[in-house]
Here is the input.
Amino acid sequence: MNDYEIIQKLKRREEDGLRDLMKQYSGYVAAIICNISQGILSVEDVEELSADVFLSVWNHAAGLMEDRPLRPYLAQAARNTAISRLRKRGEAALPFDDDIITLQAGENPDELAIKREQTQIINSAVEAFGEPDREIFIRFYFLGERIEAIGRRLAMNQSTVRTKLHRCRKRIKGIFEERGYQYE
Here is the structure.
């Protein structure tokens, strides 16, 4: 079943649509929640949060666009749900795009400013990547997925995924060099 058919069923409030959505994407949603929580949440918590994500999609089905894939919407919903739960428990792991960088022992404010600027450069570069490069980069570096899993999920050869990651890193390195950062 494709996303268009699932969205149509959800918009018509057919429970089959919700079942199909869960059948097709439950592993994907659970993986994102697990990656965001970094092992802090129990299996029961992950299942509960996954159910919350699917309930949210069900409740907001009218706003889904038929010409858009469900994966990015589900990924964002899963990410936000996991972060919200972690924050409520006081155990929030900071995701890549939070603009909070704490000082470590021995660091000074100049180092903090440099880290902030570097984080902005990386985030801007990743946002500018086209698909599937952006998804591959985020899955590998921010969600911690393995190359094999990314290849299977996106129906790509593993060497293609590696090549795309290499090119993304090369683009980011070029941006850093343009801004005066030098790396060996």
Observations:
- The longest helix spans residues 15-37.
- The radius of gyration is 19 Å.
